Amino acid sequence: MITLLSGIFLMVIQVMAKKQKDFLFDLKEGKSISVDLSTKQDKDYFILYVRPQDDDKNNDLGEIQLKSVDDTHKIVGFYENAIFNSKTNEINLKCITSPCKGRITLVNSDVIQLSTQLQELSLTLKQPALIVQMDLPSQYDRLVGEFKLLDDESDKIKIEVFDDRAKLYGDEVQLLVALSSKDCEKCKVLVVLSGDLNLKQETIISSQLYLYRDIQDIEINQEIQDYLFERNQNQYRIKLPSSYNIIQIGILGDLLPLIRVTNNQDIEIFNSQEPIQIQQKGQTYHIHLRKTEINNNNELIIQLNKGGPLKYLLVVKILDEPILYNNQLFLQPFQKKDPIFIHLKQVIMIKKLVFHQHEQNPSVYVTPECASKDQQGFCRFQIQIINEIKNTYILSTASEINHNIIKSDIPYSNYLDKQQQENLIVKYQHQIEDVELIFTVNTHNIVYMISKDSSCYPVRQECAKYIGGSDHLVILRGDQLKHTQFYVTLTARETTFYQFQIKVQKQSDIDLKIIKEDETYRGVLSFINGQQKIHYFRIIISKQLDQNIEVIQDQDTSPTIEFAIHSSRMQVALVLSKGNQLPSLEQYDLITQNNYLSITPQDEYYINQGNYTIGILNFYDIATDKEIMYTLTYSTSRTVKTLHVGQQFVDMAYGRKSKYYSFYYSKNTSSFYISLQGKDAQNLILKVTNEISLNSQGPIYYKKEHSSTLLLEQLQLNKLCLNGLGDELKEEEEEEDQNAILFCQSYVIIENKGQENILYQLNIWNPESRIEMKDGQQYQFNLEYLSKQTFLYYKIISNDTDVQLNINSHYGYTRYQIEIIDTQNQQAISLYAKEEYKTQHSKSIYKSAFEFCKKNCLLKISLEAQQQEYNITQIGRSLDFDDLVYVTVTQEFMDIQTGIPIQIQVNQDSPRKFIYSQINEISTESKMKLILHEIYGKGTICLSFNDENNQNLEMCEFQILGNVLELTQQQIQQKLNEFKLNQNPYIIIKVFSLVNTSKFQLQLEIFNDKNNHKLVLGIPTRIKMNIQEEYFYQYFNIQSNDDLYFKFIKMQGQTYIEVSRCLDDTKIACEQEIIINEQLLAGQSYSQHIIHKQDTKRYCELCTYIIKIKTTDISLDLILVITSQLNFVQLPQNIAFTDFLDGPDDYNIYHYSYDTDHQIEIQINQYNGDTQMWIGYHADLNSSNYFYGPYNTIKQMKLMNITEQISYYQAIIPPRQHLEENDKDYKITQQINGNQTLLGHYNDDDIYIIVKNNQQRQTNYSIIVTQSTTGNGQLLQDGIITQAYLSKLTPSITFYHQQKNQSQQLQLFVKVNPYGNINNLSYENYFKIEVSNDTQTNNFTIIHAFSIRNNQLTYILPVLEGMLTIKIHSLLEIATNEFNHVEYSFNPRGDIIPIPKQPQFRLYYFSNNYLNRIDLQISIVGQDVFMINQNSNQIDMIVDQRPKYYESYIQGDGKLAIQVYNCLGDLNVSITQDYDQFLKNSYNGTKNTMEGQLTDILLTVKPGPIYYQFQSNKSVYKFTTKLYNQFDKIPYGQLILGGDGQINYLFGTNDPDIISIKFKPIKCAGCDMQQEHNSIIKYYVNWGSSVEYSHIIGLCQYHQYNNMNKLQVEHFDQKDVGNYYLNQTEEIIVNITVDKQSLHNQLYISVRASILQFNNIPISDYELYYHIAEVGLPKNAFYMYKHRFYEFLIALFILVVFTFSMLCCLCSFYRKARKLKQENLNMQLEQRMKNAKEKEKVQIEVQMGYDQFQDENNEQSNQ
């Protein structure tokens, strides 16, 4: 028998091993086999991981050898690895030393490169080993790889190093691999990281690579994990701050190596002389160096040697004073007779002081007692040390560990350094009433291990029984409390103070309630100051039932035990333990978070007799001070369950089975509603009867298949009641008083017609009752059953959080009203808010609204639907459509469903959280898309994946900063597999606000599901698509008497749009009929289609419109909205919403949600026609009831104090606070809130806008709403002109741009149109522009204009990744628009004028009115374009063969008339409306014109940009553009030049300077006499001496041509002939006087005709040109020289004056020459006379000398 069992056991192991793909071996010594490599994959390496077969850690492997062709590995123990290259095809396993029995797991792995950044590596049961590579670059001295086990519940990790040169150090929790460059150069080390995963499915290892140089630069407080090799020296260089007292060098290691500290000149400051052995684990060495000892050096060199091999942690810190904690070693160099003071901090008295000496002990003085305590409760002692000689001493302290009983009311506190440990013994005396023993610690920096065995003390990881911390407390219950002594070791993850405490929970402290079968308990969970009290219940399982319980199952059959809990979504958990043991989140048998738990007879924890203990607790305890209401019901499948009116009941219908319920009501009840909702609820049948027998003869009422609600009216209820009574009771009832109340009982039966189990919610209510709503739970109602007011109530769970109300319907209109009630004082009622009929309601109630009622606040919500009647008979189809209304109130979590947009308000400090639980229903071809449409503000989305067994709400797996997050089913499944989520997985969606307050529309869509995307009337849907995609959207039309408007507003890209209609019929399949088919080009920004109710081919009631949107090779960003004239359209934020008005009585209505703390600005850009606008606070179609208005361009011009025509007007709505402060004067709050609203608690509100047509013909415009301080702006689209402005109230504007091509550098064009006086400033001084992207949101770059042309500035945008943010700041005046800096004076009719409280110096004078501003036209284009208006007149020239580009924006459909006159040279003109073609220089139409040629071009255009290219070698040209309505009569093609455009002339008979010009006037082809008289032409005659000038200046009127080309100015003249009607005369004669004809070599005459009016239509900038006539001037001498007589006289006079002047000059020169000559002769004569005198004097002197010499000579001779 034993042999048989052993064989079966071995077979089971082999089957399990085969399933896990493990290779089992059992060899005798000397034998060998081949290893199975069938599971090898194409990875870098594969690992053979050796483990025991039965996971017994005490088994002995012996020794085995694994050998391939290239490698050989010997393994002598389990949990070791052998690594082989993936190219290895055969491995031989040989037994060297028996027993050689175990299993080998083949692990395929690519090499993971360890980096210097922190990495998290994951070991799982499927991947128990990883290969990690560490590289040592040549410029580094050594590397250290650190691997640290983060999970305290895993056994151990292990590293095998496949390189003998590398060093391995550590234990089973933290490992270090180190390698020195002295052992190799450019080393690569491969290690295998493996784990023993017996306790968990997965463990996480933190890893990091440290690289160190020969001298490593470090910083203060930087932690250095390093390794000291034997005979090596590690050096660190640190720069010191200028101010400090003490430098502390801390080293945590097994010993202190020889440490030497020098300055940067190698002058020694400290030397420890020799390594010091550690005394106990966890001790830290501290070296204190004072500033005087460092000698004010600003740099230290720290050298470590003679201690290796050693792993250590080095930290350098700055201290104000030396402080010594328990179990620390302190090294200090003491100067001779220099006392030093040390402060000692300990919990208890000092046990001993130990001094380690080298030569002589110092003198020590210690304060006798604890003088004071610090904030952590530590005593403070002072130690004075004096020595006689200079030396270094080690000082250490030790304290007695508290081994006494740790009482629950006395916490234990201490201090530990990083990785330091403390050991405690807890002695516990168990008492009968003890329920729990709780080990708590107040900081996450402390981890504790508990053991029951003294041999495991100090407690080690491998023998610890329990491991805990602040986030996972150890709680002992039941049999675990029998032990009387526990051993605890605490380890510090970081240096910290801590408090450790043991709490004993007594039975008397726990309120245990007993619940019987079919009994319901209502309770409130309180969570105060971070603490909660678990509610415990005892469930008694017995076959004995209360006699009042109806049994529907055979008593011999074991029933299913069921628990239903109705409470807040994702807030409450139910934990269950079999028996009397109290359950918790840490210890339980079963748990549920989805409000339902069942135990079937086949389950492990099922019992027939006995007890269950249930705990109800707050599941996510992150909020503070909240109260959660719940309802708990215990029942079984054998009984009929009782339904309570107004209470939701959660239950599960098992496949092919039924559930039974009963409810009671009084005879005079008017009606009852029974609602059934839940996933797959369409497979459930709901019926009501008065008996539950199979042969029931009574009435049965069924819920409709496609409805969620069954209505039982009074007649039906009476039938159920009377038929349920016996004959005797009927007779008795007849005899009773008619006023007596008779209670009736009926039964609700839920049948599951499918095979799958279905979880559902059941609600029952009547109009007199209220439905209790739980936080985050979604409630469904059918529109048809909300004809009367339905009341709901919601108990506030927290006063610290706003409340969000959402009411959504695809097609129906609802209205609501909210009252806030104090449950303790029923008289304290406040009407918070109410809204009229809309498809969507979203209201955020600020938490301050609950201050008056505190914790007793109750929301009472009344809900009513607008009923619509349809003539189904006339429609002639069988219909059944979804008319559900979804209502949710939440302060925490709420469910989100596909295809239903939800509007939410989010504060910056509290994100909104949603749950999507239908992950498993996403097909493999589908993808999930989350769209966050910003109503105002700016936000981001974050996703985390969870299931019932694994929750991590703080995790963020996917996050975006933008509008769309898209995930494929494969990406979702990858995350589910990664986190092992298979127990009802779900996604938590968090929506954050990046500014103070934001409002969003969140929509979740599953694409590739054509039935998924349903549009809501009047609600814009934001669509973002990639290239080559196709999406379908549906709209079910419930409008019965109103036109439909399909509006498409495109931000980016191009698309094909196809709209078809489908006549729904449940009996036959739908045949789609295409009714709209169009293409939105890249430059076309909007399109609108109206389906009139009279159009029977396109309009239908109760039918589905299907919108197909398809992209090609460009991504798309589009807003789609379907609306009617009676429906308010929700306006998006900062997006120009383009719209149309057809006739004089046409109007459009809008609403906008805004933050009431800030002002809003509403602007109408009038493209053509004329409109007026009104603004109010209620949905009303009567503009006279609106608070502000009317606004129009005339009022705008008056406010701006200007007379020139403008194309916009604006309204500014002040902040709510200003309105409330001025309530006494204008009663504004009453106007807004209906006299009853609770003031001061508005987060957001709605305004309503009416725009009416103010003329007889069609008009189109765009409306844009902006809000101050929301941090958002408009989206700039490529090639589309955007209107903006800077003003006193708006000194800064923000734009965003998504660049399609990252390699293309775009240009930003800003055209300026200022109002007011600018003091002659350059346009560059008006504003500055900054640019950043979403990866560096705070790093803005200022860009400068590189060219200025007229009033247009051109900028080059930097090439940045992601979304560009472009900010334009006014430099003329920076003034805030916040209400606390602005005072408002306003008139209720709309004249709102803010006035600054403190006037500022202004460069920009606003002409005494605040609305004056600088208008900007902004465009981003890939070409150098010049922005022009839709109707424009341009004169330009080309001189360098570079084409000229122009861009304008067409505001509506029509005919664009373009007239081009080529003044000089040949010219090529190209035009397109396709932006992509424009960038590729590919145009739809091109015209070539010759010099002097006038070209008329007439194009049919759509709304959007249009681009022009003018190309020539050299040319001067003039062109005009004007947009006409499709039905306007325009002069193009009808007006022709009279006389074929020839000009005749005749010289005057009396005066030859007078020339008579004759030409035929312009004719009209096809015009009658009335049309001719209603047309006015103005003629001009020009003449000059150059044909070039006749073209350029005469006809083109380009007078700057002379200056720009620096040509000689020749005489040119012009004469205004006057205005003429068409065909007013046969010939026009005009005389011109040509002065100075002699200056003209030739004379050229031109005639220009300007059409001022055609057929009573004002025309501007349309001209016709006659052929230029060359005039032959007379040749007779008199005529030639007639005009030169005065010229001759002037020339003769000049000649005479010149001659006389020259003669005078010659005479003067002659006289001066003679005088100079005479003076020269006199000077020569005087010189000669002087020389003669000097010569005579010399001769006399010589003669006298000679005579004297003769006399002397004679005297000597005589002697």
Largest sheet: 7 strands, mixed
Shape annotation: flat
Q: What is the strand arrangement across the widest sheet?
A: 19-28-21-26-30-36-32
Helix content: 10-25%
Number of helices: 16
CATH topology of the largest domain, what is it called?
Jelly Rolls
User: Would you state the CATH class of the largest domain?
Assistant: Mainly Beta
What class do helices, strands and sheet pairing give? mainly beta
Query: CATH architecture of the largest domain, please?
Result: Sandwich
What is the gyration radius calculated from CA atoms?
Answer: 48 Å
Query: Span from first to last CA?
Result: 185 Å
Pick out the low-confidence regions.
1-20, 335-339, 345-359, 398-404, 724-741, 1223-1240, 1374-1411, 1676-1681
- Overall number of domains: 12
The residue-averaged pLDDT reads 77
How many β-strand runs? 130
Please state roughly what percent of the residues sit in beta strands, choosing from under 5%, 5-15%, 15-25%, 25-35%, 35-45% or over 45%. Answer: over 45%
Organism: Paramecium primaurelia
Keywords: Membrane, Signal, Transmembrane, Transmembrane helix
Transmembrane segments: 1688-1710
Protein name: Transmembrane protein
